[in-house]
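Deliverable D4.2, example record:
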Amino acid sequence: MTEEYIASEKVYETENLGKLSILDMLDYFEKKGAMRVSDLHIKVGAPPTYRIDGDLVKLKGVTVTPETAKQLIYPLLSDENLQKFTSQYSVDCSYRFASLQFRINVFQENDGICAAIRALSLDIPKIEKIGFPNDVWKDIVNRKQGLVLLTGITGAGKSTTIASLIDRISEKRACRIITIEDPIEYIYRQKYSIISQREVGRDVKSFVDGLRAMLREDPDIIFVGEMPRRRDHIYDAYGRRNRPSGLLHTAHKRCYRHHNTHTRLFPTGQAERSPESALAWTRLHHLPKARAKKRRQRQNCSDGSA
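Output generated by the structure prediction step:
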């Protein structure tokens, strides 16, 4: 169905730039830089709108119609993601264009189809630069087994922190790293390690399917973007292995707390099933609220036009 829509087709009429395609709109991120232009919002009943330096700035053009919204958004979706959107009314995915990776959320709202498109630089920040309050990251990158839960509120920088950790591990050690993400945000360069990234809905049907497949993929380190809810699925990731491995996982802070995370995953009553070798070392790190607060302040909205 997505073959009916072409990303390069110029479908949106502006006052001063002529007709634009969705690729033209993504190219604006490339020209201005992802540090300045962070997001693009496409919504029925309003012009496409960028977030520039934290402020919303509308394109000077006509309002987006339901058909124009489909012409701009659907080319960014695979057939699988379009089917998921049709059945569940929202979908997360990614899109690669030029030197940028885009994280996309498409959802249905009162006026029709909507998309929030965020640009992510392919340059992963150095771990020393992202704001760890201490040197705990050194313990994480040097460990060869165990469970690491990285928690924080929305916007705290969980994805960036995980990317920095994996990138540093890849620089230091020759190991096999496999990730399951929804969607893929940062693209890892192949360094000393071998890294495979799988996106749910594109490369694998679900996190659970991806975890079970990993049993035959010889990973040393696993990154899972979402913790399975069923304990037997978690056990698949840890327990049924010939050797211990490390697992990294992100979660919203409200989901896990220092005092009961391990108990929730492996209760005392099921201690015999807890993979002791894999859980010999468990580390939780909460990202500081200050970073998230600073980001929210920078993204306060104001009206404008481009």
